[in-house]
UniProtKB/TrEMBL annotation:
This is Glutamate synthase (NADH) small subunit. It comes from Jiangella alkaliphila. PANTHER family: GLUTAMATE SYNTHASE [NADPH] SMALL CHAIN (PTHR43100). InterPro entries: 4Fe4S_Fe-S-bd, DPD_II, FAD/NAD-bd_sf, FAD/NAD-binding_dom, Glut_synth_ssu1, Glutamate_Synthase, Helical_ferredxn. Residues 41-73 form the 4Fe-4S ferredoxin-type domain. Pathway: Amino-acid biosynthesis. One of its GO terms (molecular function) is oxidoreductase activity, acting on the CH-NH2 group of donors, NAD or NADP as acceptor.
Length: 488
């Protein structure tokens, strides 16, 4: 155990973001560079000391990766950061990603949170890995010998990267295919720079290349390389294509110029923030922006619009406003139903709850307003409140309503894999699809989920593929295809 009385005497203290007026002038991370671990080291040590080292550490179960949280908290408290980094990497290939992007279900399941504020697990995690990179402790781990087996991984998001790194280290020859010009999937072009600077992604990709993973970017699999080509060239194929088939809003005025999907807007903004010229870029500068959807993607649009100089930003959500504290319907250790305020919300804008969009109106083919109505939730759905219709000015509308599964691409058709009623790829208990030798990892099989689930599935799929190719169990497998978030 770290500090035996830490959770009694030390209050929770999270990381302090940069001032709003400062961070809105750039695209750098909200939290201070060069990393929480260097800037707030004494505070991080104290916060790690709040960990109770519980007899049954529910944080392990809240996190699908099974991160050894009490162990690395204790090691940080004892100033053994290098071993803490080793324990962190024992279960998580990319803690620098999860420490910045995961909403931390581990903290919701923290035993301290039963009666007090949870341990700042995310802050400790990202501090460990930032220090590990600073000190040069993160080095390539190439295999001692190579097998004669080859694997193709389609998609370079967190699930695909986890599959590739695990299988490369097991000695297989792994090629990762990515249709974008650079590897990283949504980590690169879907996540704004202010949430995770791409230098964190690039240095991990450099490690993977040094270990032997091959990256083939700018390749549209299903077109440049067919499903038949993959099956003839490789001993196994892993589909880690994500759930990028976005949910649309087919209402009057949808065709108007200025109504866009969030994932049309965010990748362009990311490229622009990194210094690229983006012809015809969708921008919020000087515009009244409406974001439809109250989740993380909507918050990413919000922070992006602020930095582009929007005249106003309003985020709409069909659900009623959540309570300020954990709701009784989601008791500990479940992920709590409660109001969450991201760094983007702290920067401005309005949030409007319990409303539904009826139509977009425009002039000369361009959107100028959005008509909404207040709704009440009933057992049969959402019912409009009579007389509550109103218009909001809108020069740019961004649809951030989630995703419904993987894109129905040529590759899916060529491989002949089966889809379920939700549109996700069917798989068995070993993550293998209905086509032998073809596996699926992450959101493409699970549906839209968290980054920790993507990495956990990537590790588990790597174990399944390795078992298929070698006949032995050598790699860790933290989750099964049917596992779901912690519930009571």
């Amino acid at each position: 155990m770290a500090d035996p009385r830490g959770f009694l005497k030390t209050p929770r203290q999270g990381a302090t973001p940069r001032p709003v007026e400062e961070r809105l002038r750039d695209w750098n991370e909200v939290y201070p560079a060069p990393g929480i671990g260097r800037t707030l080291l004494p505070i991080i040590v104290e916060q790690a000391g709040r960990c109770m080292d519980c007899g049954i550490p529910f944080c392990h179960h809240g996190c699908p990766l099974g991160n050894l949280i009490p162990e690395w908290n204790d090691l940080v408290w004892r100033d053994d950061w290098k071993v803490a980094a080793e324990r962190l990497h024992a279960t998580n290939n990319f803690p620098e990603f999860t420490g910045r992007l995961c909403p931390a279900p581990c903290e919701a399941a923290c035993v301290v949170a039963i009666a007090d504020d949870a341990v700042t697990i995310k802050n400790v995690e990202v501090s460990i890995i930032d220090r590990a990179f600073d000190e040069g402790w993160v080095a390539p781990l190439p295999p001692e010998r190579l097998t004669d087996r080859t694997v193709a991984v389609i998609g370079s998001g967190p699930a695909g990267l986890a599959v590739a790194q695990q299988l490369t280290r097991a000695g297989h020859t792994v090629a990762v295919y990515e249709r974008a010009d650079r590897a990283g999937g949504l980590l690169r072009y879907g996540i704004p720079e202010f949430k995770m600077e791409k230098r964190h992604l690039d240095r991990r990709l450099d490690q993977m290349r040094a270990e032997g993973t091959i990256f083939r970017t700018g390749v549209e699999v299903g077109v440049a390389v067919t499903g038949k080509d993959l099956r003839s060239r490789y001993d196994a194929v892993v589909l880690a294509v994500g759930a990028t088939d976005w949910r649309d809003l087919p209402i009057p005025g949808r065709e108007l110029d200025g109504v866009h999907q969030a994932m049309e807007y965010l990748p362009q903004a990311n490229r622009s923030s990194l210094g690229e010229t983006v012809p015809g870029q969708i921008t919020a500068e000087g515009k009244h922006v409406i974001i439809i959807g109250g989740g993380d993607t909507g918050a990413d649009c919000l922070g992006t619009a602020h930095r582009q100089g929007a005249a106003s930003v309003t985020q709409l959500e069909i659900m009623p406003e959540p309570p300020g504290t954990r709701h009784t319907s989601t008791p500990w250790p479940m992920w709590p139903l409660m109001l969450r305020t991201s760094s983007a919300h702290e920067e401005g804008g309005d949030r409007v709850y319990a409303v539904s969009t009826l139509e977009f109106t425009g002039d000369d083919g361009k959107v100028t307003a959005l008509r909404l109505v207040e709704v009440e939730r009933t057992p049969s759905g959402f019912e409009p409140v009579p007389g509550s219709e109103r218009d909001l000015p809108a020069d740019l509308v961004l649809l951030a309503m989630g995703f419904v599964g993987p894109e129905k691409s040529a590759l899916i058709e060529q491989l002949g894999v089966e889809l379920d009623a939700r549109g996700t790829i069917v798989r068995d208990g070993s993550f293998e699809t209905t086509i032998p030798g073809v596996f699926v990892a992450g959101d493409a099989g699970r549906g839209q989920s968290l980054i920790v689930w993507a990495i956990a599935e990537g590790r588990s799929v790597a174990a399944a593929v390795d078992r298929k190719l070698t006949g032995v169990d050598r790699l860790p497998s933290p989750v099964s295809p049917t596992d779901r978030p912690l519930a009571v």
